[in-house]
Design goal:
alpha/beta; five-stranded mixed beta sheet; globular; single chain; 5 strands
Length: about 180
């Protein structure tokens, strides 16, 4: 499968170093040539923040019917609610008016195959142990529940009454809501 940002490859299909970034910069030049300032504020029109996995298979705007300016999107490995996600959500709510939070994990997540041993491997490789947790999981529904709980119990968030969690099926494109129970 090829995407619009597919990288030029060298021998045996290896991505040529620097070429991906060059291609992205060239695409930006084309984009900017037709760009007009939409005159938007940084506040999301729908007053919602979406926290999701960084997986490249998730096209959140298309999957949720969102347009530019509709939401804040916060992505990380696994879509888990970490301290940094709480930081972003706190700024989003306190300074930019969001009230609702949507959490989206997905089927086939790479974090399901990792363990905290990954931190040990990194320490052996680079000589320093990462301060962050891997946040791996085996049960995607339970991890969504844990993320919802972290949001709902954060003392920094103003609005925790409209927090919902979902699992995106990468094979069908459908969301399945996870009960907070």
């Amino acid at each position: 499968m090829t995407t619009s940002a597919a990288a030029p490859t060298g021998p045996e299909g290896a991505i040529t170093r620097g070429r991906v970034t060059d291609r992205l910069v060239e695409a930006n030049t084309r984009y900017a040539s037709a760009f007009t300032d939409p005159g938007m504020d940084a506040r999301p029109v729908l007053h919602v923040a979406v926290v999701a996995c960084m997986d490249a298979r998730l096209d959140l705007h298309a999957a949720l019917g969102l347009e530019l300016g509709d939401c804040h999107t916060i992505r990380n490995a696994g879509g888990v609610v970490t301290d940094d996600v709480i930081r972003s959500l706190t700024i989003s709510q306190h300074k930019l008016g969001t009230r609702s939070i949507v959490l989206i994990h997905h089927t086939g997540c790479g974090l399901e195959s990792l363990t905290e041993d990954f931190r040990n491997e990194l320490e052996m490789e680079v000589g320093q142990r990462p301060a962050w947790a891997v946040e791996s999981f085996q049960d995607v529904d339970q991890d969504v529940r844990q993320s919802m709980q972290r949001v709902r119990t954060s003392p920094f968030l103003l609005h925790t009454d409209d927090v919902r969690g979902f699992v995106f099926d990468v094979k069908t494109g459908l969301l399945r809501e996870v009960d907070a129970a």
